[in-house]
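Bug #77: duplicate submission created two jobs. Keeping one. Sequence:
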Amino acid sequence: MRNRHLIAKIYLAFTLILLYVPIFYLIYFSFSSGKNMNKFEHFTWAHYQTLFQDNRLLAIFLETILLALLSSLIATIIGTFGAIAAMKKESNKKTTLALNNVLMVSPDVIIGASFLIFFTALGIGLNFGSVLLSHIAFSIPIVVLMVLPRLNEMDMSLIDAARDLGANSWQVFSDVLIPVIMPGIFSGLFMALTYSLDDFAVTFFVTGNGFSTLSVEIYSRARQGIDLEINALSTVMFIFVLLLVGIYYFITTKKGRKKNHRVMGGLVK
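Kept job's structure:
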């Protein structure tokens, strides 16, 4: 048993090193006064100063954040209602899961090309709207997968009890159902947000008319040569994602503590 725990710890440490060393290597060179990552020269904030003076890049950063917030919020609403609707019938649940699995395992290149053909056939211009619709579409299955387990764990007798006590459909929905599945909703929201921020392949196909996201812009600049301003931008984005993870962890931990207090209070009574 001890050997298994030791192997698990070694594997976890190796995985973390493999994932985080390249990120910290990139962050390290964002403070170099050189022009590339061949050699670290003197410590400097120059690349960050250049970054915050680049109006185009700052505009793209804000547009990317706005896109991620809007798409994740809309996808969370649609995905939550979709998961609830799927739970009403077993056949609906199986169909929803099947469609979700198809979208989750499909390569991003195929999804992006499909959206491109779809928008072109309908005469929809490639701009912020096309990217927003695409991000909503591929984020909905993520939300559904996050919400469905909470619905499966829910004791449906709570709904019957609420109806027996005179609650109408809206009260059952807002006061019973939503509070129970709220952790799943938050999980879906944050997952959709990170997927939107991270996406490149789908966005690359459906962006146009001067609109761009950070991932596409970084790719375009990297093709012209490694610029340490990209390192600075990547560092800022990494810190932003860490803040999101911290907020999510704080919310879930706080809710877990409240739940434990309620359980302990019930046992004391």
